[in-house]
UniProtKB/TrEMBL annotation:
PANTHER family, sorted: 1-ACYL-SN-GLYCEROL-3-PHOSPHATE ACYLTRANSFERASE, PHOSPHOLIPID_GLYCEROL ACYLTRANSFERASE DOMAIN-CONTAINING PROTEIN
Thylakoid in keyword set: no
Name of the protein in question: 1-acyl-sn-glycerol-3-phosphate acyltransferases
Organism: Pseudomonas indica
GO molecular function: 1-acylglycerol-3-phosphate O-acyltransferase activity
Length: 269
């Protein structure tokens, strides 16, 4: 899979009407693609030989590749430009990827560049007719908020899976600072070999919380994903009891993201 580690050269800004049409086509393609995966692709993949692990890897690789093609469609149709820095350091065994969540397509872009990744997804998506096929075939983890979810996520990391988590739990409210829940830190302390922060910025903002897809910005938006330095969760585990360590790690992550997002604002990226 081609990896974008340098910014793609921006093209001339597409007309507003075309970008609106292209955005609608993107979402239609995403929905139809999800249904096709559910009723056609994954049932056929299930017939191929292999154990449970092989089927899971095959399903995740399929989702990753199709998400990558979806991002390429949005780029080439004039909806967005994108820039990915340090993506080659994602996808390591036992790695917990923690990202902020400014837009609807954050998880799509992340999974597009990681061939075999697990992900904690919203409970509501498990019943979404377009999404539940890929989610269940790839064996993603439901964000039910229960202790079972924390145990399942920690177990996945201990097995050597790569796990993507958005500690906000939902998209960032426009104009407000991200708020991190402590569950992500608790999972990291229980099972992660390393924690890698990924800072996501979208300029101009679009596809934010409670914002309809058709409210597009005046120009094509730029999606930037930056992979930060690895964090050793055991350095925090040694600082006290589990609740104290979880709070300290969560505070550290929150401060890191606030600093990096403020830097993006000052530099205009």
């Amino acid at each position: 899979m081609e990896l974008a580690t340098q910014p793609l050269k921006p093209r001339a800004n597409a007309p507003y009407l075309w970008r609106l049409i292209a955005t609608g086509l993107s979402f239609a393609l995403f929905g139809i693609g999800g249904l096709c995966l559910r009723v056609l692709v994954f049932p056929l993949l299930a017939l191929l030989p292999g154990d449970t692990l092989t089927h899971r890897r095959r399903a995740r690789a399929t989702v990753s590749r199709l998400f990558w093609l979806f991002v390429q469609f949005m780029y080439r149709s004039g909806v967005l430009t994108y820039e990915v820095e340090g993506v080659e350091r994602l996808g390591r065994p036992g790695q917990m990827i923690i990202a902020n969540h400014p837009s609807l397509i954050d998880v799509v872009v992340l999974i597009a560049f990681i061939r075999d990744a697990n992900c904690v997804v919203k409970q509501s998506l498990w019943d979404n007719p377009c999404m539940r096929g890929p989610i269940r075939a790839a064996q993603y983890i439901s964000n039910s908020g229960s202790m079972d979810m924390l145990d399942e996520a920690a177990d996945a990391l201990r097995e050597g899976q790569t796990l993507i988590v958005f500690p906000e739990g939902t998209r960032t409210t426009p104009g407000k600072a991200p708020e991190f829940h402590r569950g992500a830190a608790a999972i990291a302390l229980r099972g992660a070999r390393l924690v890698t922060p990924v800072v996501i910025s979208v300029e101009p903002t679009t596809l934010t919380k409670a914002e309809p897809w058709y409210r597009i910005p005046s120009r094509r938006f730029h999606f930037r994903l930056r992979v930060g330095e690895d964090i050793d969760p055991q350095a925090f585990a040694a600082q006290g009891s589990a609740p104290i360590a979880s709070r300290k790690l969560n505070d550290y992550l929150h401060q890191h993201f606030m600093k990096e997002l403020a830097l993006d604002e000052r530099t205009g990226t």
